[in-house]
Design brief:
This protein is mainly α. The chain has five helices and no strands.
């Protein structure tokens, strides 16, 4: 029987365009856990130790915050995104997607 390898998104995030598309797709889903997991995938793709150092966090803390069941504070998310050269932006929701429309 063939050995199956678990699929790891971080192995496929090999360009800035791919990373931007991946993070934007995760954000569009509106699920904080999914966004946090995607951020963890990008951090692993870029090197968790370097991201942690640039964010001023320990590697272990970063793994806990971005791992399964992690619930990082918004400040931690901002630090990690800054460390990876990523920025959040805000735009108007489409009329179709707005709850108050």
């Amino acid at each position: 029987m063939a050995d199956l390898k678990t699929w790891d998104a971080s192995e496929h995030l090999d360009s800035e365009d791919m990373i931007f598309a991946y993070m934007n797709a995760a954000m569009e889903e509106g699920d904080p856990a999914l966004f946090t997991a995607a951020l963890g995938d990008v951090a692993r793709a870029r090197g968790m130790s370097e991201v942690a150092r640039n964010a001023g966090l320990s590697r272990e803390s970063l793994y806990r915050a971005l791992g399964r069941g992690g619930n990082p504070e918004f400040a931690t998310i901002v630090k990690v995104m800054n460390a990876m050269g990523l920025r959040l932006s805000v735009s108007a929701a489409s009329e179709h997607g707005r709850e108050d429309a």
